[in-house]
Each structure stands twice: as C-alpha cells, then as structure tokens.
Design a protein that fits this description.
Largest sheet: 5 strands, antiparallel
Shape: rod-shaped
Number of strands: 17
Bound molecules: adenosine-5'-triphosphate, magnesium ion
Distance between the termini: 115 Å
CATH architecture of the largest domain: 2-Layer Sandwich
CATH topology of the largest domain: Heat Shock Protein 90
CATH superfamily of the largest domain: Histidine kinase-like ATPase, C-terminal domain
Number of domains: 4
Strand order of the largest sheet: 2-1-5-4-3
C-alpha cells in the first residue's frame, strides 16, 4: 500500500524514518527516566527530610543542654532558610507549636498541627525520624527531641515542593537539549549516508531513464561507479547487461542486414504471406517478376496481383502449408505475359513463431521461363536434327536410283529411234532429274557438317545457302546480288559458317515480305582492330523493314525474337557464338523507315569478319614434310 504523505525520495524516507524512530525512543527514554528520577527524588527527599529532622532535633537538644531554649527558635529559623525546606517547626510532646518558621511569605506559618501530623507524631519512637506524605507532592518529616533521656518535643521539617520540581525540570530540560542535539547529529549522519546511497542510485536512475528514452543510442554508458558497495556492484552489473544487450543488438542488426541484402539481391523471388494470403514482405525480384513494385504488393492478396489460375494455385498451396505445417516443393505456376508465356517454380515453407505456430508462409519463386523455353528449343532442335538426318538418308537413298535414271535417260536420248516430240520430253525429264539430283546433293552437303576445320570454297558455301532459300527468294521477288569470286576460300568449320549465312539470309528474307534486294558479299580483308590479322569480310545486306533501336540491343541474346510464332530467337545468338568460335566479329547496322517519311529507305546490314586461322599459313615452318605431302 502506498501512503500518500510518505516521501518518494530515498533521502527523505530515511530522514523521516530516523527522526520518527528517534522521537519515539527519546520520548520513551524521557518517560522512563522521568519515572525513575521521580522515584529517585522521592527517595532523596525522604532521606534528606529524615536527616534534616534529625539535625533539627539534635540542634534543639544542644540548645536545651546549653539552657538556651531561645536558640531552639533560632535553629528553626536557620533550618527554614535551607533551599529545600519549606517550613520548619518545633512542637512540644502534645503537639503544640513552640517555634515555627517558613521560607516564603506567600504562606502563613502553621498555628497548629494537622490531624495527620498528630497521628504521625505518635508513631515516632526513639531517635528514628518518620517521613510521610502530607498531600500530593508534599513531604514532611518528624523527629523526637530527647533532652536528658526524656522526650521534650518534636522537630518538624516540610519539604519545598518548588525546589524539588525545579530539580526534576532541570533534568527534563537537559534531557530535551540532549535529545535535540542527538536528533540533529542523526539527521546529519543520515543525510551523509543517504547521499552515499542516493547519488549512485540517481546515476543508475538517470541512466535507465535515458536508455528508455533512446534505446538505440546508449550514449551515457558505461555509468560511473561512484561507490564500492552493493550499489556499485549493481551499477557494474547494469553496465555489463547494457553492453551485452548492445552486442546482441549489433549482432541482430548484422544478421538482419545480411538477410535484407540477401532478400534484396538474391536472383530469386521471395515473398511472405499471412493467413489471408496477403503479402507481408517481398523482395525486388519478386516485384519485378509480377511487373509491380514492393510498395504496391504489400498488403495485397495474390489474386489482386497474379492471373487467376496461378493465383488460386499459389493461394491453395499457402493455405495447405498453414494447415499442414510442412513445406510444399516444386509447384509449377504459369501465366501469360506481354512478351511470352512465363513459368515459375515455387517452393512454400512455414515460418513458425517461438510457440511453434505457423505465423507466415514463405514462398521462393524461380523464374523457369528460360529453362522451359530452352527445353522447348532443344526439343525443336533435336526434332530438326532428326528431320535433317532423315532428309539426308532419304537424299542418300534417292541418289542411287537417280543415277540409274540419269543413265537411262542418257541412253534413251541417244536412242536412234527416238523421234520428236518424245526426244524433247526425254530432255525435259533429264533436266528435272538433274534438278532433283542437285537438291539431294545440297541436302546431303548441308547436313554433313564438317567436324574438323578445313579450307572451304566460299562461293560453293554461299551458293548452297542461297539455293537452299531459292524458292522463298523467288516467291517473294527478292533480287539477289552476289559479290564474291569463285576462287575464294577460307579455313573454317564450313558447316557452321554455312549455318551463319543460312540464318542471316533467312532473317533478311523474313524482313522483306514484299520483296526487295539482298546483297551477299565476300572480300579478302584485314581485321580493323588488328591489321595483322588476315581474313574475309562478309556483308549480308537487305532492304527490309530494319530493326528498331531498342530491339537492336537484344538481337544477339538467346530467345529474343519479334517473330512471335515462327521465330525461336536463337538464329543470331547461335551465329554470334559460331563467329566468336572462329575468333571473328559480327556487327549490325540498321535503319527503319519512319511513318513520317514513307519515301525513305530502310534496311539492315550485317558485317562479319572471319580471320583466316589456317595453321599452314600461320605457322608454315611448324608443318612436317609428311603432313605437307599428305
Ligand atoms: N535482317 C533483319 N531485318 C530485320 N530484323 C532482323 C533482321 N535480322 C534479325 N532481325 C531481328 O532480330 C531478331 C532475332 O533474330 P534471330 O535470327 O536471332 O531470331 P528469329 O529470326 O526471330 O528466330 P529464329 O531462331 O527462327 O532465327 C528477329 O526476330 C528480328 O526482329
Ligand atoms: Mg532468324
């Protein structure tokens, strides 16, 4: 229970306690002392009165011995003058007053003895005086006066009450003065002691207040240890506790910033959901994957962010993790994006509280779109390769009967009996069979890519590419301009270089649906960056639609295509890889016709430099005579 009047500060509490205790003990002490002293005074008064009565009786006896009864009156007067005596009497044996004197003018001298005094008088035997109380605080003594062994009279002495009270008051006064000095000394002592307690406590108090006001900046720590007692130990322990909390806080903030940076920079999407499948935390990658921002996602539910199908699948997964408290792995989510369809792989796991309750569900999302597309492309490539192999084997099988047909047609055309128009038909058949033979040759040659680099005749290589696209070129009315010499050759992987040109020519044809011009050029040249390097510079230029500037940055990336259905976006990527393998370079320049200027020209130019890395040319001395003859 809190007393309202009880002070709050420790010094005042100590002070109040000590003063109250001392007042109590002083009061008790004074009471006990006054009681004791009172008794003591009474005893002393009794002894004194007995003694004074004896003296009075003795002096009266002396005066009678000297036959001077008048001196008895004098000794009575002298006795009455003593400070502790109020009245002195001498009576005869019947109690009649012979001499009387008192020390105060306020009271008349007694004329006769009281009843009580007469009673007491008869109790006196021998020389032994009697002391008795004559009223509250009034004491009296009587002693017998014997003269020549005969009772002559009685000597009476009355005690002076004022004088005795003065004695008591004097004592009380000294007790009070002593008490005041004692209390003052105790207050000083208490204040000194309290200061040694309250000062360090004050430091501790202020330190904790400062810590509560600004827990992040414990500037006043460590607190000074002003005393070496239990409070000093307490402050030291407090300092150590704050330091350890600070250390833990630093560790925690390190861990948090580590987690934060991991969350922010990990190349995978992280998101945390509550029971309503609302985002409670999400990283930048996840926001980018949903084409949103972190602030827009927080607090929203999945169906506000994702398309309906993946949203409900992920929501069901999150609900299951909450219900079953176990992770769910490799959930495939897919949706339609602006550029292409996306595929995500999601893993959901429970995040528990200290009490092991599932508080949130964390979802890690991997964008598997590229992987999915690579798998698709691989499948397509494999299909193409298989088709190529099939085409090559068919072409191979067709070759033999074709040769027989060619020979037979030759024999037929030289047959003497053959007349016109049959001869003309045979010649037409011969022409068409020759075309079939050419197509099968091309197919075979295109498939049989060399696995070893060798000198390749460039005119054959480029011709084969153009004739492969012959039908589409003619169909679109594209005029082809060939600028290469028949005798040019280059040390390369011919099949791969052929693939590069097949891609470039294919792209050029795609860009000219309404027809146009296609230039294919090859020239001996030196590398512009390194004039020491000899090689061939190829140019493939078209007057097609051109490439938009923002697309130009991406055309060499895998899967970048603007041909939504027909393109895989691998052509230029593969081509650039092949050119890089040959240590060459590929560059592009392009211009698009602006809608504001429909008369302007547009088109694209690819320029390739492929160095001639023929070891026979580069290192002629290194070749052995055997390899030369071989
Ligand atoms: N000559 C060109 N004229 C205009 N655009 C071109 C030309 N060459 C390439 N491009 C652009 O570059 C993109 C990428 O070309 P790339 O050859 O890599 O893939 P693709 O032709 O789309 O598909 P595929 O894998 O079937 O070749 C094309 O989609 C097209 O937009
Ligand atoms: Mg292409």
């Amino acid at each position: 229970m809190q007393l309202r009047w009880w002070p709050r500060s420790i010094s005042l509490q100590l002070l109040a306690g000590v003063v109250a205790l001392e007042l109590l003990s002083l009061g008790l002490f004074a009471w006990v002392m006054v009681r004791q002293q009172h008794q003591e005074i009474i005893n002393r008064v009794e002894q004194r009165l007995a003694h004074q009565a004896n003296i009075a009786a003795f002096e009266a006896d002396e005066a009678l011995d000297d036959r001077r009864p008048d001196l008895v009156g004098l000794s009575v007067d002298i006795m009455a003058k003593s400070p502790s005596v109020a009245e002195s009497l001498v009576t005869d044996t019947d109690g009649r007053i012979l001499f009387a004197a008192n020390n105060t003018a306020d009271r008349p001298v007694a004329q006769e003895l009281s009843e009580l005094e007469r009673m007491q008088m008869h109790r006196v035997h021998g020389d032994e005086p009697i002391v008795f109380s004559a009223g509250p605080n009034e004491w009296e003594s009587v002693a017998a006066i014997h003269h020549r062994d005969r009772l002559w009279g009685y000597a009476w002495v009355h005690s002076d009450r004022v004088w005795d009270n003065q004695q008591l008051e004097l004592m009380l006064h000294s007790a009070v003065v002593f008490g005041i000095i004692w209390i003052a000394a105790s207050i000083v002592l208490v204040l000194v002691m309290a200061r040694s307690i309250t000062r360090p406590l004050g430091v501790l108090h202020e330190g904790t207040q400062a810590l509560m006001r600004a827990p992040e900046t414990p500037g006043s720590f460590p607190l000074p240890i002003l005393v070496h007692n239990e409070i000093g130990d307490l402050i030291e322990a407090f300092n150590r506790m704050v330091a350890s909390i600070e250390e833990q806080r630093a560790g925690l903030s390190d861990t948090l910033s580590l987690l934060d940076s991991m969350l922010a920079n990990a190349p995978i999407g992280f998101a945390f959901f509550d029971r309503q499948a609302r985002f409670v935390r999400v990283n930048r990658i996840f926001a980018e994957m949903t084409s949103s921002s972190i602030s827009r996602l927080l607090g929203r539910t999945l169906d506000e962010v994702l398309p309906q199908q993946p949203a409900s699948l992920l929501q069901a997964t999150i609900a299951q993790v909450f219900a079953e408290d176990r992770p769910m792995r490799d959930i495939e989510l897919s949706g339609e994006g602006s550029a292409w369809n996306w595929t995500w792989i999601a893993n959901a796991y429970p995040i528990r509280t200290l009490q092991q309750q599932v508080r949130w569900v964390g979802v890690i999302v991997l964008d598997a779109t590229d992987r999915k597309r690579s798998e698709e492309a691989l499948r397509k490539t494999e299909k193409l390769a298989a088709t190529g192999r099939l085409a090559a084997s068919i072409a191979h099988e067709i070759n033999n009967p074709l040769e027989a047909i060619t020979n037979l047609l030759y024999l037929l055309s030289n047959h003497a009996q053959l007349q016109e128009p049959a001869l003309g038909w045979v010649q037409m058949a011969e022409h068409e069979v020759k075309r079939v033979a050419e197509i099968t040759q091309q197919t075979l040659r295109f498939y049989r890519q060399s696995t070893l680099a060798a000198r390749a005749r460039l005119s054959d290589l480029l011709d084969s590419v153009l004739s492969l696209h012959q039908v589409r070129l003619q169909h679109r009315g594209i005029h082809v301009e060939k600028q290469y010499d028949a005798g040019m050759d280059l040390y390369c992987f011919a099949g791969e270089i052929r693939q590069v040109f097949a891609n470039l020519v294919g792209n050029a044809i795609d860009s000219m649906p309404e027809g146009g011009r296609l230039l294919v050029r090859a020239r001996h040249a030196t590398d512009l960056q390194n004039p020491e390097r000899q090689g061939v510079r190829f140019t493939v230029a078209d007057t097609g639609c051109g490439i938009a500037p923002e697309a130009r940055k991406h055309i060499f990336e895998a899967f970048f295509t603007t041909k939504e259905v027909t393109g895989t976006g691998l052509g230029l990527w593969v081509s650039s890889e092949i050119v890089a393998k040959h240590e060459g370079t590929i560059r592009v320049r392009s211009r698009q016709r602006q809608p504001s200027d429909p008369a302007a020209s547009s088109g694209t130019v690819f320029v390739l430099f492929v160095p001639d890395l023929d070891p026979a040319r580069l290192f002629p001395a290194a070749l052995t005579p055997e390899s030369e003859t071989a």
